[in-house]
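To: structure subgroup
Subject: Chain for Friday's discussion

All,

I'm putting the inputs and outputs inline so they're searchable in the archive.
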Amino acid sequence: MTDTAEQILVVDDARDIREPLGQYLKKQGYRVRLAASAAEARGIVETARISLVVLDVMMPGEDGLSLCRWLVAHGGPPVILLTAMADETDRIVGLELGADDYVTKPFNPRELLARVRAVLRRTPAAAPVLDATRRRFAGWTHDPTTRKLSHEDGRMADLTTGESKLLGLLLDSPRTVLDRVRLLDLMAGREAKAYDRAIDNQVSRLRRKIEDDPKQPRLIVTEWGGGYLLAADVEVLE
């Protein structure tokens, strides 16, 4: 194992799962960090170069879904959730929050390893540099640096990293249809076939923040069989 090997963070309050899984992943050539709580995991993510997080959903105190939300909002590494077999709701919510995959307990370590490898293959080696230009559209002003939206009528909205990046891509090409494959490629360089629904979920959340009626959107318009289009003119601000 070398210092350049990808580093995986395993977060699980159960020592009898956390430590054997860590040892197994080390034998597969990965560097591994272990955390027994969300608070401990945050400290590691903020100070170490983590390539992927394997995250248990059910933990005392702050649960895994809350930590997943924080990781996605802060542009953290990809996440694979460990969920109980019966907790389908947790799996759905986790994917909607932005988790990359999930494995149900009890799990075969070889299955988890296959999913780890698959997620790492479709994750870009380095995040793209984000444009810090503030832009105005349909009364809204988007500030990608703070990930905030402000409307001329006083409304405000905070965006996750993914939502802000998606909006920035739509603002780059107003009144132009961007298909899901293109959006996925620009967003994260991931395999489009596996993440069509992820883009749809991002668009749905973004609509709830900027549309007067999210069920009948007028700003982010669906082009059936094509993708999405920003139906507004865009003004670049100084």
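Points worth raising on Friday:
Residues 135-236 form a domain with the Arc Repressor Mutant, subunit A fold (CATH 1.10.10.10).
Confidence is low (pLDDT under 50) at residues 125-129, 189-195.

D.
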